[in-house]
Write a structure and sequence with these properties.
The protein has helices spanning 2-24, 26-71, 85-93, 201-205; strands spanning 77-82, 100-101, 105-107, 112-119, 130-138, 154-158, 168-172, 193-200, 217-223. By secondary structure, it is of the alpha+beta class. The strands form 2 sheets. Strands 2, 3, 4, 5 and 8 form a 5-stranded antiparallel beta sheet that branches. A 4-stranded antiparallel beta sheet has the order 1-9-6-7, with no helix packed on it. InterPro entries: MATH/TRAF_dom, TRAF-like, TRAF1-6_MATH_dom.
Length: 231
């Protein structure tokens, strides 16, 4: 028993001596220092990765804003191309994405900011039977200089892509007592106003009609700017 204990003690002593000798070798010392330095860099690398990810997100947001500015209309006209209609309609029926917003458009360079909102499977009394189309007044940069409530005639149009050009159109004058046309204060946009029964699904699905072609439809919105006061 005593011999085994002595043997173990001798082995431990030799192990300590070997480790001490290894530490004294310059290459091993450098390797050890490099490992310690790398360990110290790990938190910095993680933080750097987070910074890179944040930077990429900001760049993507800026790119989206530039694209919106490039495609923005300032003459009170919106032409909205909706691709993948069948897929988007299915999403609406299944409740995943019940409505879509268009890109913003403007009534003048310093005028009202607006957009369109569409429910491909209908909204309210039109749900399940019609496509609903609405007009939305958004919060803009120059609202403080504009007259309120919004009082300009709005035309909502579904474009016929056939040679017949039998466009479907509905237009209305804003109700001055409706909150939909007051200056947006606490939200980015007002409650949408428009046509819950804009067009029946039976009309869209009719093979003799070409309101949907190549799984794409076009929506046009016109705002009458004839009486628009310049800022």
């Amino acid at each position: 028993m005593m011999q085994q204990v002595e043997r173990i003690m001798q082995l431990e002593q030799k192990t300590d001596e070997l480790q001490t000798s290894l530490r004294e070798i310059p290459q091993v010392q450098q390797l050890h220092q490099s490992v310690e330095q790398l360990k110290g860099l790990i938190p910095q690398l993680s933080n750097h990765d987070r910074q890179v990810a944040t930077h990429e997100i900001r760049m993507a947001e800026m790119d989206l804003r530039f694209q919106m500015l490039e495609t923005a209309s300032y003459d009170g006209r919106l032409l909205w191309k909706i691709r993948d209609f069948s897929h988007r309609k299915r999403d609406a029926v299944q409740g995943r994405t019940v409505s879509l917003y268009s890109q913003p458009f403007y009534a003048g360079r310093f005028g009202y900011k607006m957009c369109a909102r569409i429910y491909l499977n209908g909204d309210g009394i039109g749900r399940g039977t019609h496509m609903s189309l609405y007009f939305v007044v958004m919060k803009g940069e120059y609202d403080a200089l504009l007259p309120w409530p919004f009082q300009h005639r709005v035309s909502l149009i579904l474009l016929d892509q056939s040679a017949a050009k039998r466009h479907l159109k509905d237009e209305f004058f804003p109700d001055p007592n409706s909150t939909s046309f007051r200056r947006p204060e606490n939200a980015e946009m007002n409650v949408a106003s428009g046509c819950p029964l804009f067009v029946a699904h039976t009309v869209l699905d009719n093979p003799n009609n070409q309101y949907i072609k190549d799984d794409t439809l076009f929506i046009k919105v016109l705002v009458d700017m004839s009486n628009l006061q310049s800022v």
